[in-house]
Design goal:
alpha+beta; 157 residues; globular
Length: 157
């Protein structure tokens, strides 16, 4: 279930700090540093931040922005604290369907670092809605010297 992140702010930040300097944080932030979110009570109707909970247990964090003028959803962030918990994908997918079907969003765009374990799910979602996937080669070098691609997705409705 998605609830406003402000209700679990400290717990989210503490959980994310446990992953500082890990490959998981690299996939979330898109670079080698740690990127803790600034969870705010007042987001001006543009920034949406959610704690993902399952039986009152915090299992993830999900955020995005909406440009209402251009009808575009972007700047996604998704972090799982309970790897392989199916509920995270279910809750995020429900929210995305609501954005598409209820708010009639014109465009969705997001980026990710290649090699992210959820890439196949992103590919499937993009394909379902006839979107496009662009791959920028060797954009980020990790601490071990391995290069990672940057992947950009876009869906126009």
């Amino acid at each position: 279930m998605l609830i406003p992140a402000i209700l679990r702010k400290e717990e989210i930040l503490t959980k994310m700090q446990e992953y500082n300097y890990t490959e998981d944080m690299m996939y979330y932030s898109g670079y080698l540093g740690n990127a803790l979110p600034s969870i705010e009570a007042d987001t001006n109707g543009k920034l949406y931040q959610y704690a993902i909970v399952d039986d009152d247990k915090l299992i993830g964090y999900f955020t995005y922005q909406i440009d209402w003028y251009n009808s575009c959803v972007c700047n996604f962030g998704l972090y799982s604290f309970d790897k392989n918990n199916r509920q995270i994908g279910v809750d995020v997918y429900r929210k995305l369907k609501k954005l598409i079907n209820d708010y009639h969003i014109h465009r969705i765009e997001w980026r990710m670092i290649g090699g992210n374990p959820v890439e196949k799910h992103y590919d499937k979602f993009c394909q379902k809605y006839h979107g496009k996937k662009y791959v920028l080669t060797d954009v980020l070098k990790d601490r071990c010297g391995k290069y990672h691609n940057e992947v950009i997705y876009e869906i126009i409705f």
